[in-house]
Design goal:
mainly alpha, 0% strand
């Protein structure tokens, strides 16, 4: 029994040594390949990527900070309160699907459409002040 355990220990130690050797040698080989690849393309004297003029991004003002928050914050709260019953109904009655396989869609689809109609005034007011749409 003793020689078998000794052989297994040597096999495991050898596999560990090989794993450590590969883990140190593979990143070095990859870096060498990358350096050679980079040198090959630099010999042509032009960059690899197409350069474009970068335009500075213009950020829109945040509608929930600053003076617009006087309108957009209460609008978002009211829209959320109005949409809660429709979101709860959508959990029970799915708005999309095949009515032949799931008859609950026959109730869910009109409720979903009514939710869009009920939230449309909040969408109009929020859009006027730059708020993102709050449809569910």
């Amino acid at each position: 029994m003793q020689p078998t355990i000794s052989k297994l220990a040597r096999i495991a130690a050898g596999a560990g040594v090989l794993a450590v050797a590969f883990s140190f040698s593979l990143p070095a080989a990859a870096e060498t390949h990358h350096a050679m690849h980079r040198h090959h393309h630099l010999a042509y004297g032009r960059p690899l990527t197409v350069t474009k003029r970068h335009h500075e991004m213009v950020m829109a003002p945040d509608p929930f900070h600053g003076p617009a928050a006087i309108v957009t914050a209460p609008n978002a709260v009211a829209a959320t309160i109005v949409s809660l019953p429709f979101r709860a109904a959508a959990l029970i009655f799915p708005p999309y699907g095949n009515p032949a396989t799931n008859p609950l869609v026959l109730i869910g689809a009109p409720v979903h459409a009514a939710g869009y109609v009920a939230e449309f005034p909040f969408f109009v007011v929020g859009s006027a002040f730059g708020a993102p749409p709050n449809f569910y």
